[in-house]
Write a structure and sequence with these properties.
Elements (H helix, E strand, L loop, with lengths): L1 H12 L14 E2 L1 H6 L3 E3 L2 E3 L4 E2 L10 H7 L33 H24 L14 H38 L3
Parallel strand pairs: 1-4
Antiparallel strand pairs: 2-3
Helix pairs in contact: 4-5
């Protein structure tokens, strides 16, 4: 508590170099400095120069007990408790969903490839280039094949992007839960 009071006194009694450049900005001063300022007389009325006073209350400084409560028990010095990610053999310990769950970067990669193919199909149609060098522009399958790539590729790419973000968020929440931040 005495350290917080000393820091407050040194903060209040020091002057900020930016404020002492004569810019007309107020300067922080102690209450004792304000009381010691001589009265200025303007005609018949006397007034004090105005200044800023800074004070700290007892509740504004956190006690060391409150700071220790925020530190997890496994992170305290001398603790033999393993961190959450090292418990249970690191297997996560949660119930797994049935089926195979792809990592988010697989969805992201598939989304990018699908989007490139869909946009490339638009350019192939506009420039009348053969599709994959196989289906020529005079073929009856040329427009329907490129249309299929465009009209299914763009929504599929959007869905895969959404699924990538959803999977990444799910993985991050699971890691937060394992780390003890829930």
């Amino acid at each position: 508590m005495a350290a917080a009071a000393a820091a407050t006194v040194s903060l209040c009694s020091s002057r900020c170099p930016g404020l002492s450049l004569g810019l007309g900005l107020p300067q922080a001063r102690l209450a004792s400095q304000v009381a010691a300022t001589p009265l200025l007389v303007e005609g018949r009325r006397a007034r004090r120069r105005r200044g800023w006073q800074v004070a700290a209350t007892e509740g504004s400084a956190k006690s060391s007990g409150e700071a220790e409560e925020q530190v997890p028990s496994w992170a305290r010095p001398g603790s033999d408790e393993p961190p959450p990610w090292a418990r249970d053999g690191g297997g996560g310990g949660g119930a797994q969903e049935p089926g195979v769950q792809l990592p988010f970067y697989a969805y992201l990669l598939a989304s990018a490839i699908t989007a490139i193919a869909a946009i490339g199909s638009i350019f192939e149609y506009a420039n009348q280039r053969p599709v994959f060098g196989v289906v020529s522009p005079d073929s009856a399958l040329y427009a329907p094949l490129l249309g299929f790539f465009v009209f299914t590729g763009i929504p599929t790419s959007g869905f895969l992007w959404f699924k990538a973000v959803q999977t990444a968020n799910k993985e991050a929440e699971e890691q937060d839960r394992r780390d003890g931040f829930s």
